């Protein structure tokens, strides 16, 4: 492999572990992803360099994003895209942009959210979510109890509020890890949810 080919193939600033170097739980996760998605997300490979930490992160991330919770799945992905775009995180903005489209949001709306949520055709509830996600991401020191009132006005209860804050916090963490270490999105994410993915393909996470 030439140096230029190595640069193209590189998905992290750090080396990637082999199956022999990671815990069995990580190997099972890689194989499950390959079966369900047809590929292993690059973040699964890159973060597995510290296998136990990766499994702990994934358990919480998976609970917040993929399990039954208090927010709707599309709302969770909306938060993911807004926070990731505000932070300029390439990996998360691209991968969760795909998930937002696959959740049923029109590609034109999802793309607008990724660039400037204020110009997207959002509902009142969606706009309240985005506004709070932006404030907590960009100006966390300004957040007060009063900032929860607009969310309560669009139907948020206590459990919804806590989950929203946790998801915003999770993506601010994950964005910084991904950006600091140069994680590169899988090519499959770019076409997903645009009517270009293979028939019968599973949602990308």
TrEMBL record:
<dbReference type="GO" id="GO:0051920">
    <property type="term" value="F:peroxiredoxin activity"/>
</dbReference>
<feature type="domain" description="Carboxymuconolactone decarboxylase-like">
    <location>
        <begin position="53"/>
        <end position="134"/>
    </location>
</feature>
<keyword id="KW-0575">Peroxidase</keyword>
<dbReference type="Pfam" id="PF02627">
    <property type="entry name" value="CMD"/>
</dbReference>
<keyword id="KW-0560">Oxidoreductase</keyword>
<dbReference type="InterPro" id="IPR003779">
    <property type="entry name" value="CMD-like"/>
</dbReference>
<dbReference type="InterPro" id="IPR004675">
    <property type="entry name" value="AhpD_core"/>
</dbReference>
<dbReference type="InterPro" id="IPR029032">
    <property type="entry name" value="AhpD-like"/>
</dbReference>
<protein>
    <submittedName>
        <fullName>Alkylhydroperoxidase</fullName>
    </submittedName>
</protein>
<dbReference type="InterPro" id="IPR010195">
    <property type="entry name" value="Uncharacterised_peroxidase-rel"/>
</dbReference>
